[in-house]
Design goal:
heterodimer; A: alpha/beta; Rossmann fold; Arc Repressor Mutant, subunit A; 2 domains; six-stranded parallel β-sheet; 10 helices; 6 strands; globular; B: alpha+beta; Heat Shock Protein 90; 3 domains; five-stranded mixed β-sheet; 65% helix; 8% strand; elongated
């Protein structure tokens, strides 16, 4: 099995240092690059071409985590981004998810949760810290169209972090069908990506925070 | 407040340089050819008119030079001194011109001309005096009025004290926000590192001795650094830093914390400081706050790799300078938050000045100057004597010769100046009594 290629972006030296040592304790993860700010990460992202970028949301000076995520996604569409942050900041969280992040993990989380998040996101799942999701669900308040029962099933499974293939297997239909369902759900919810769909699922109480 | 006037966009230094550029050559022309224009002794004019005209030309040149000098020096107290000389030279020019008008009109100048001239004198004296009061800061021009009767640097009136109080209240809120931000930016990251490194040690326990040792070293380093950062933050919460040693220690802790937080090399240098008596009350506290704010900005925005913090006395001031080699900013980019405004007010309340200079890609320099209180109360009395005596002499002259109403504004100015110093003397004496 090829290891998951990870890049760390954080302006705090101690954070990247300790994270590198921690993630490399696992044979299935390899840290291929470390950057202290968004600009230097973007400069070398194509060269590194990581599977997952673990990136701080707040970085001093220059471009912030949201912009960094957006540009990484543009330069390297196959790379997935996890926002790593020391606090819950609802507008920023919405912003980074809209920019295309696949995960949102707080620094308060256990180190093991971080490894799990890296593995899950590398598999195409979406991971949102439960406490952050709760804050987000309470803050979101946009009207949206009603979903069909099938779409609700899809959204529920999607919200539980399953990939299209997982959902297809669970519902006993083809992956293409699920893709169509997912894009229709996203359109109906007026969201751009799966991460935001999860928030919407929480808001509609299709899943509870504890299930995540 | 008249903020927003187009005048506010004008930097006082530019005005001073413009003044020097225009008035210098005019002064030279008057010095060289003035007597010819007015008519010399050959035309039957008294000799004295020639000498006075030349003196006016010389003073105009001197005022231009002083204006230029004051626009060049950085230290605001030196700038004040140059502006003082500038005002004196300027006043002499105006006075001579007034006398000349009398001579030219043969002591029968129209009343409108006289009053226009007196008005001109007051307006220019108020305006330029305002610059002296504000140390020639590049502040909006609309701040420069209302100089007359202002206290000398280092002393604050009751009104200013009340204002300071208000600023402190507003500042306390900002202070708490900054503390929260800093905790989040420093100690929380260290604790994250400790947690992660401890997990690493655990995970590698069975088959990676070197890795475990490295992780444990990380735990210890982060613990030590977060302790230093906590100490620096506790200094924010303490309300009193009253002695020099306390200030220097606190600044050292701030510098150390910054280097842990950003990885930058932070050099701190403190020269031997003047005694506590020579500094306005609250100097230590204000300088520490300025350092905290400036270093916090370095950590949050600058991305500097080298920072220099210097605390050293100059001839008339105690200077705190914070220089970084970071990204800098455009003048317009900087958002004047309550924090930096509060710092500026604190330093200004001590009679000092705060200045931030920065250019994109060239780092940022923050300098605070606090004036030294080297003067004994008696000095103020001595200073009050000359304007007082001159004013009185002018009034006596006026009483004997009622036609010389032109002396009145000068006498009033002298009296006001003298009164300022008497007030300063009383305040200084009271402070001394309180201190002893």
């Amino acid at each position: 099995m090829t290891p998951i290629r990870v890049v760390l972006v954080d302006d705090h030296r101690v954070v990247t240092q300790s994270l590198k040592a921690w993630l490399e304790s696992f044979p299935d993860i390899r840290v291929v690059g470390v950057a202290a700010n968004g600009e230097s990460a973007i400069d070398r992202i194509v060269e590194w071409s990581p599977d997952v970028v673990l990136q701080d949301l707040l970085m001093p000076g220059g471009i912030d985590g949201i912009e960094t995520t957006k540009r990484i996604r543009q330069l390297c569409p196959s790379t997935r981004v996890i926002a790593l942050t020391a606090s819950i900041d609802e507008p920023r969280m919405t912003g980074v998810l809209r920019a295309g992040a696949s995960g949102y993990v707080r620094k308060n989380a256990e180190p093991e949760a971080l490894v799990d998040a890296v593995r899950a996101v590398a598999k195409g799942r979406t991971v949102i810290d439960p406490a952050a999701a709760r804050a987000l669900a309470e803050a979101t308040d946009t009207p949206s169209e009603s979903l069909t029962p099938r779409e609700i099933d899809v959204l529920r499974l999607l919200a539980l972090g399953q990939s299209n293939r997982d959902i297809a297997a669970a519902l006993g239909v083809g992956e293409e069908t699920i893709k169509t369902h997912v894009s229709r759900v996203l359109a109906k919810l007026h969201v751009d990506n799966r991460a935001q769909a999860i928030v919407e699922a929480l808001r509609r109480r299709l899943v509870s925070v504890d299930e995540l | 407040m008249t903020r927003g006037l187009p005048l506010d966009a004008i930097d006082s230094r530019t005005v001073l340089r413009l003044y020097a550029l225009v008035v210098g050559p005019i002064g030279f022309a008057i010095l060289a050819w003035g007597p010819m224009w007015l008519g010399g002794p050959l035309n039957g004019q008294p000799w004295g008119v020639n000498a006075l005209t030349r003196l006016a030309g010389a003073c105009a040149i001197a005022s231009a030079l002083c204006a230029h000098a004051s626009s060049l020096v950085e230290n605001p107290l030196d700038r004040r001194r140059w502006l003082g000389w500038f005002l004196i030279a300027h006043a002499i020019v105006l006075a001579i011109t007034y006398v000349q008008i009398h001579a030219v009109w043969d002591d029968a100048a129209p009343i409108e001309v006289r009053w226009a001239f007196i008005g001109l004198f007051f307006v220019t004296a108020g305006l330029y005096g305002g610059w002296i009061r504000h140390g020639g800061d590049p502040a909006p021009l609309s701040h420069y009025w209302g100089w007359l009767g202002a206290p000398p640097p280092g002393a604050s009136t009751l009104l200013e004290t009340a204002y300071q109080e208000q600023m402190r209240e507003a500042g306390a809120q900002e202070e708490r926000h900054r503390l929260a931000r800093d905790l989040h930016d420093s100690v929380k990251q260290q604790i994250f590192a400790i947690q992660t490194a401890a997990a690493t040690a655990e995970a590698r326990l069975d088959d990676d001795q070197a890795g475990v040792r490295q992780a444990l070293a990380q735990v210890r380093t982060s613990a030590r650094e977060s302790m230093a950062e906590m100490d620096a933050m506790l200094d924010h919460l303490r309300t009193t830093v009253v002695e020099n040693a306390g200030l220097i220690d606190a600044l050292k802790r701030q510098c150390e914390a910054l280097s842990f937080r950003t990885g930058a090399r932070v050099d701190f240098h403190a020269a031997p400081l003047p005694g506590v008596d020579a500094l306005p009350t609250g100097t230590h506290q204000a300088l520490l706050r300025v350092a905290q704010e400036a270093l916090s900005n370095v950590a949050r925005h600058a991305r500097a790799t080298e920072v220099q913090v210097t605390l050293a006395p100059a001839a008339r001031t105690l200077d705190l300078t914070i220089v970084d080699n970071g990204r800098g900013f455009e003048k317009d980019d900087v958002r004047h938050g309550m924090g930096s405004e509060n710092m500026r007010e604190r330093i200004r309340a001590l009679g000092g000045s705060l200045q931030t200079t920065s250019h994109p890609g060239q780092g940022t320099t923050v300098t605070a100057w606090v004036p030294l209180l080297v003067e004994e109360p008696a000095v103020y009395l001595k200073r009050a004597f000359w304007p007082g005596a001159t004013g009185t002499a002018l009034l006596i002259l006026l009483a004997f010769d009622a036609s010389r109403t032109s002396y009145l504004p000068f006498a009033v100015l002298m009296a006001l100046d003298s009164a300022r110093y008497v007030a300063a003397w009383r305040r200084a004496r009271r402070l001394q009594t309180v201190a002893s």
